[in-house]
Design goal:
This protein starts with a helix and ends with a helix. The strands form three sheets. A seven-stranded mixed β-sheet has the order 4-10-9-8-7-5-6, with helices on both faces. The chain has a four-stranded mixed β-sheet with strand order 1-2-3-13. 39% of the residues lie in helices and 14% in strands. It is built from 15 helices and 14 strands. It is globular, with a radius of gyration of 21 Å. Helix 2 runs antiparallel to helix 11. It has two domains: 170 residues, Aspartate Aminotransferase, domain 1 (Alpha-Beta Complex); 249 residues, Aspartate Aminotransferase, domain 2, CATH 3.40.640.10. Strand 1 and strand 2 form a beta hairpin. The protein is of the alpha/beta class. The structure holds pyridoxal-5'-phosphate and ligand LHPZP3FS. Ligand LHPZP3FS binds next to loops. Pyridoxal-5'-phosphate (PLP) binds next to helix 4. Homodimer. One of its GO terms (biological process) is protoporphyrinogen IX biosynthetic process. It is found in: Cytoplasm. Pathway: Porphyrin-containing compound metabolism; protoporphyrin-IX biosynthesis; 5-aminolevulinate from L-glutamyl-tRNA(Glu): step 2/2.
Length: 427
């Protein structure tokens, strides 16, 4: 009998491209229809058929405290009473900007936008405006949203679908995007040499979490910092996934490397649509109305989104034990899954950092886009489907991250590990 999710997907495909509003959700690479989600609570999501799943996606990061975290929920309900949008400044925007600038290294000013895509697009524009240069170096397999210039050898859904560069991006937009190999400083140096004096910025995910999770090699980030300084280019950390997750100060704090500009996304909205970019005051002062870099947004700093974000960030700041707990949970889960794979003689390369992890279905080391792509995606799909059937909701692609949150319990993790022990023997 057809499930409600299947029926909804059939209807959706008639009126929404691919039936979804963001491609990864279509579950294409794992060969099945997506689940349509009805509600979520804590560490669980419930589909339209009433099935419960332990959620290891957490809306791709923002649900670090779990779904419907009371502190966020209450703040949103209270904010709703005041109205949904004013298109005018509110105190909450000041409060969240003060909180971030006081506690995140190097972020002296910050501007709210509505998504990670917008945050990156705006930061790149600010970098170009500030330096008067046009070229941007990005890394293969890093995903920075879907603005034209960033859809070059991108990760996430683009990588999952095997689309190296998107149709519809004019050659001129992509011509200023240079791509280097993650963890390969020589490839960056070569680009600096070839385009001497033209590189405005190097942008990267300090931990790449959109080609699976790929860790920066020892010293990689610091050496990039030095290289940018030598070449008069800015360093942009895209912390849409790592920000407020690896530590309150994100990867900058975790690795002790300071970027010139940082971009944030979903996590600072507690699940509401938010992004932000910030950094050194002199760069941010080039943004309108102070300077000549134009960037705007009718719904930017939305009062309800700001209330949710503020509540989540305050909780994280006041409860630093969250970071220790989610890191421990993640390590525990990953160790269990790794053992399950070893028992079944399934070759696996496992990466974990803080509350982010990835199981690459390959026995070879993974440190860049090329090696990530060598994973056995068909085996991943079998693993994914078998785990889903048993009530464990992981991201539906080999090239996405596992996200742990504060609501996951040891019982949840044990159940997942126990099921994985059976599943690994069948894939
Ligand atoms: C590192 C990174 N940058 C940018 C984005 C784009 O964010 P959004 O999907 O909110 O536009 C994402 C996620 O999608 C991301 O993971
Ligand atoms: N990898 C993306 C976010 O970090 C996945 C979200 C999406 O594209 O829908």
């Amino acid at each position: 009998m057809e499930t409600k999710s299947e029926a909804l997907f059939e209807r959706a495909q008639k009126v929404i491209p691919g039936g979804v509003n963001s491609p990864v959700r279509a579950f294409r690479s794992v060969g099945r229809h997506p689940l349509f989600i009805e509600r979520a609570e804590g560490q669980y999501i419930y589909d339209a058929d009433g099935n419960r799943y332990t959620d290891y996606v957490g809306s791709w990061g923002p649900m670090i405290l779990g779904h419907k975290a009371p502190v966020v929920q209450e703040a949103v309900l209270k904010a709703l009473e005041g109205g949904l949008s004013f298109g005018a400044p509110t105190e909450r925007e000041v409060l969240i900007a003060e909180l971030i600038t006081q506690h995140v290294p190097g972020v002296e000013m910050i501007r709210m936008v509505n998504s990670g895509t917008e945050a990156v697009m705006s930061a790149v524009r600010a970098a170009r405006g500030f330096t008067g240069r046009s070229k941007i170096i990005k890394f293969e397999g890093c995903y920075h949203g879907h603005s034209d210039g960033m859809l070059v050898k991108a990760g996430s859904g683009v990588m999952t679908a095997g689309i190296p560069d998107s149709l519809g991006v004019p050659g001129g937009c992509a011509a200023d995007t240079l791509t280097a190999v993650y963890n390969d400083l020589d490839s960056v140096e070569q680009l600096f040499q070839q385009h001497r004096g033209d590189v405005a910025a190097v942008i990267l995910e300090p931990v790449a979490a959109n080609m699976g999770v790929v860790l920066p090699k020892e010293g990689f980030l610091q050496k990039l910092r030095n290289m940018c300084d030598t070449n008069g280019a800015l360093l942009i950390f895209d912390e849409v996934i790592t920000g407020f997750r690896l530590a309150f100060g994100g990867a900058q704090e975790y690795f002790g490397v300071q970027a010139d500009l940082v971009t944030y996304g979903k996590i600072i909205g507690g699940g509401m649509p938010v992004g932000a970019y910030g950094g050194r005051r002199e760069i941010m002062e080039t943004v309108a109305p102070l300077g000549g870099v134009y960037q705007a947004g009718t719904l930017s700093g939305n009062p309800v989104a700001m209330a949710a974000g503020l509540a989540q960030l305050r909780f994280l700041l006041d409860n630093p034990q969250v970071y220790g707990q989610i890191e421990q949970s993640c390590a525990y889960l990953v160790e269990g899954l790794q053992k399950a794979a070893a028992e079944a003689e399934v070759p696996l390369t496992v990466h974990q950092i803080g509350s982010l992890a990835c199981l690459f279905f390959t026995g070879s080391p993974v440190d860049d886009y090329g090696s990530a792509k060598s994973s056995d995606t068909k085996r991943f799909a079998r693993y994914f489907n078998a785990m889903l059937t048993r009530g464990h909701y992981f991201a539906p692609s080999q090239f996405e991250a596992i996200f742990l949150g504060y609501a996951h319990t040891k019982e949840d993790l044990d159940r997942t590990i126990q099921d994985a022990r059976g599943v690994m023997k069948t894939i």
